[in-house]
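Sample 1 of the test manifest.
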Amino acid sequence: MRELGIGLIGTGFMGRAHALAFHNAKAVFDLPLNLTLAALADADPQRARQCAQSWGFETAHSDWQRLIDDPKVQLVAITTPNHLHFPMAMAALAAGKPVYCEKPLAVSLEQAEQMRQAAKAAGVVTRVGYNYQHNPMIQRAREMIQRGELGQIISFQGEFSEDFMADPASPWSWRCEATHAGGALADLGSHLLAMARHLLGDVEAVCADSQTVHLQRPASVGNAEQRAIAVDDQVHGLLRFANGARGTVSSSWLKHGYKNHLSFEISGTLGTLAFDQERLNELRLCRAGQPGFQRLLAGPDLPGYAAFSPAAGHQLGYNELKTLEVQELVMTLAGEGGSGTDFDEAWEVERLAAAIRVAAREERWVKVSEQ
Amino acid sequence: MRELGIGLIGTGFMGRAHALAFHNAKAVFDLPLNLTLAALADADPQRARQCAQSWGFETAHSDWQRLIDDPKVQLVAITTPNHLHFPMAMAALAAGKPVYCEKPLAVSLEQAEQMRQAAKAAGVVTRVGYNYQHNPMIQRAREMIQRGELGQIISFQGEFSEDFMADPASPWSWRCEATHAGGALADLGSHLLAMARHLLGDVEAVCADSQTVHLQRPASVGNAEQRAIAVDDQVHGLLRFANGARGTVSSSWLKHGYKNHLSFEISGTLGTLAFDQERLNELRLCRAGQPGFQRLLAGPDLPGYAAFSPAAGHQLGYNELKTLEVQELVMTLAGEGGSGTDFDEAWEVERLAAAIRVAAREERWVKVSEQ
Amino acid sequence: MRELGIGLIGTGFMGRAHALAFHNAKAVFDLPLNLTLAALADADPQRARQCAQSWGFETAHSDWQRLIDDPKVQLVAITTPNHLHFPMAMAALAAGKPVYCEKPLAVSLEQAEQMRQAAKAAGVVTRVGYNYQHNPMIQRAREMIQRGELGQIISFQGEFSEDFMADPASPWSWRCEATHAGGALADLGSHLLAMARHLLGDVEAVCADSQTVHLQRPASVGNAEQRAIAVDDQVHGLLRFANGARGTVSSSWLKHGYKNHLSFEISGTLGTLAFDQERLNELRLCRAGQPGFQRLLAGPDLPGYAAFSPAAGHQLGYNELKTLEVQELVMTLAGEGGSGTDFDEAWEVERLAAAIRVAAREERWVKVSEQ
Amino acid sequence: MRELGIGLIGTGFMGRAHALAFHNAKAVFDLPLNLTLAALADADPQRARQCAQSWGFETAHSDWQRLIDDPKVQLVAITTPNHLHFPMAMAALAAGKPVYCEKPLAVSLEQAEQMRQAAKAAGVVTRVGYNYQHNPMIQRAREMIQRGELGQIISFQGEFSEDFMADPASPWSWRCEATHAGGALADLGSHLLAMARHLLGDVEAVCADSQTVHLQRPASVGNAEQRAIAVDDQVHGLLRFANGARGTVSSSWLKHGYKNHLSFEISGTLGTLAFDQERLNELRLCRAGQPGFQRLLAGPDLPGYAAFSPAAGHQLGYNELKTLEVQELVMTLAGEGGSGTDFDEAWEVERLAAAIRVAAREERWVKVSEQ
């Protein structure tokens, strides 16, 4: 079996999530490639060494370019802060190596455009970490839609809200800077837009409204110094899909009570489907002719679930979605994929978000193709 | 105690609902006026007589103008088809009598404008039957908002969807004619717009999208003849409230699984509040600092509830909202009201709906004051 | 159409509920008898007169025996405190008049036994106010069971819990006296036992455990004087039904958070059915072969619902269950009934409760037929 | 840091779950011992080798005794069929090695008794895989109870039901044999009993009822040959806890619609707490004085959660409960534990189940200490 040497850049929470996902994908799936944890990079050499040992990587680098150049590395995984995605991914593509980059693809649409062009030119597999799409329940929803089980899709109502910035005393962070892809739309809403596209395809036009509610925040926890905030706290929009469906999207990080409320309802001529990521192992479904909604619990009949549990109702967790993402990537690298989000698709998500920003700023309907 | 003679026009489902509501309001509340069921009118003299006897009215008329002229009638209640609201209400106002008209106020904004002017000129109490607002849970929600318990309101997401037209074989009816105030926006959405205004006040601008999904329907059940349909099956919109809140509205009569899904979530800087009329005795609330949503069940601490039941959790039904509506009307007639929807407010609802139609047709943001 | 003169004893909350139910039943149903509100009795003559006028009764009595003797009264409705049910019902039966008595039938099994014998001897229709059974959703559940839609019934798990006595400072009341049919089992649990019998039929044997948690309570609100409490605060039991099903019952008035939690789950070889009276317009159902539970919302397809609303999802309230109870009674009086609870069935409920008390006291399985 | 060599016996679903849990515990926690995957045993030498390589074990054995004797093995983990737990655990204890055995401890109370005596004699750490207890939400529930946040606990109502045997065509398996710890009580109910003890402590007396509904099943899927079934399909019982609380337990593998319905409600004088394992990241809680239940979503404030995710609402899955179980075991081995289930506690669970069986058979209350 062919080897696939993993080179992972970044040792934060998401770096560890990748390390676990690579390991667990190997253990729970019969993968067509033999994954090896070849190299780990962190700017801090000591941390790089420590994490490499603890997570099972063979080599540690403090210079990420050396990881990319390492001949044992056949896949470059990027989990660093958002503004570093661009240089790292471009370097990996220049080296002709497949790239697995955390979301968002980039911190500007211009960067994203260069990245997708570079990926096209390199001709390698790319992936961006929109791991929520790998939830087996989401895959089932997508299948239902594609098979026509819901009939013609006429409406999508989506929301991704949390409350981690609801307290005006929650301090400034990089998430409050547009140049780091901050704001509710970029941070949360992009997951929702990616999901909308994953389920229903292209969006043709948008109209939107967005607001900054708390115009300043403490520079750090308890700090008397206030920093001005320019990014959006909430956004509401209208979408027109190429398939004729219409809908709404909302995203807020100020909505008390919500912790992971990526939710949607999809209305079709043959049924309604609803999902809320705060209960990620469930779908609510009402087919035409049925008296009411039924609750579906994830089980081994779903794609991917059986690898983790032989019995329904034994819920998958957030981290296992990452393992499923790695599996899809490996299958694709082996020529057997896949519906994962590549750079081209991630650019589409960025372009859609950009169109929403323009629509909000100019208070008009905007064609996505204008961007 | 002063007498209040009720004159009721119409003997359909809504006519009976009014008759019951007048009786029950008298029995459950200590009203400041002595209600008497003075006269009932229906174009069919036999039905008028029959219903008058069965529902306890003193007189029956087949000519509604005679009911209006009847000196025993001090309040004219109108429950006839939508296109008759205008002539009947105008006649009652011309006679200087208070009017209690079912929603919608009229079948065009022009009619609505004349009606509110006539009401203003007549200087009498008017009410329009947006009975969902009289739900004690809604009154509690409104109080919470007005007292600032949710802080500054920043977002409203509302929906009113049902599925009674979801089957393309559901036949044409007057609800499919714009000239009878048909379509999902007028039939269902107007309740939602009225609710949004009841809770958050004026809307300044709107943007919207609407669709007719099923372009023809059978002329009647099982009829091979098809009629062309021009009214909207679904609408989605963005709202900007005068108080600074932003939001979305959606309405559909094609959404499988929903029967009475007038729902909203209101996000404020101090909490989130959610309601779904399919569970009309419940609110979900999360205040700032609380770990999650709590469910509130209607109980005798709510305005109006105690008249019906001394114990919490013994749910009120749809018909009791009508009884509460009558109570508010009677209190207002006695000079002790009231937050009910008068012709002026009902015109505002119609104007808002008209703005949404323009916004959808012209694909642009529309100021409500343009209408 | 034959007249049915109603004589109502008692003017408390339940008296008014009866008065409304008689009126509304007449308005919403095509009844085979012509109901007239003949007479109202209350020991206080002024209150009797006042309520008679306000509720529309022709005559007022301060002596309930005179109401029973009133030739215009053809049905005696009893809504007085529990210990008065016995003398009033016995007098009405002695006069050969049908009786509609609030639950519980009596304050001792001995009284109940005399009452059912007297009813049998009188040969008149009797009814006891277990109005929760008249919920159309419950009628649907019963039909499903009787038609075999759930297959062989194998398990019943029932609970009726509220929290109105959860605070140890909630004062003593007649509900705390066994001689007034007090205690959680008698006050709440009897509804659950009646429901279990209504749905699944006879219970053959029981085992149970009961407790008084708060052994004394203030004599009245804020009173420093404490009274000893002997009745049960909670009870748990096992049931063996004659049809082979087994199950559990629980009842408590100390359970924080519950307001009207009469709930059950019924498991059959072909499906599971669940109900919670805090959402009285809903059932949860999973049939064999279905992937999960579906929610059924009450609608006009249910027996009784359509009289109140032509559309699904427009919930019935607690008071309308009373109207439905009156309808069943009137139909039965006209010879067209009915599955209502008569004195014989109410005695069965009392006997079952008595068996549970013995089982708890003697710590053993008890055959219901022992009582 | 001291090494801890893991020896794992069994390569089925549960063997893999252990392998993953050991790996992931090392990656997500700062453990005080250095875990090494020393040896894996399976009777099939080829499978042993294959799994060892794929899961990262250093050595493979086809004879489990050799694994126990392997000096590199300092902890013996047993994931084989139930009837093998006894000989393997006894051998490991004889070798003076800590044991981590899957539930149930044994297939008879006699075996369980020998095992706990052997553990006591050996003086080593033992653990049994009741992993549901390691759910951070359950740990939070336990803390709340122990800190008195719910006041005096007065009631426990527990259920563990699934539907995997609901179809009478579901074939015979070892789960249908009492000698393999089969039946709904042993297979599912033991989890519930362990949970009840984990949360509320000792049970003093029980009364119960159990039934075999389907008296025969196909020998295998689609097989015309039927085998007689003697184990219980469902059980209902009453519990008396040593702390004074009373309650009910139910377990069934015939209950349509349930997949993992280990649920409980605990009523205390200061609050009610509810849990359903089909939503394992949630608790419902109503404290005295609060108007209704609130939903708590798991988050990093809970013990153990933060190791997996820094944000609330990013649910843990079933497999992560196993990782948490391993963490507790390792902490205990390092002298820093722990509330895990050791052989003594697992024997208590078995004794409680045995008491329930006697109570059902002899139709009487049974003191647990009789067993």
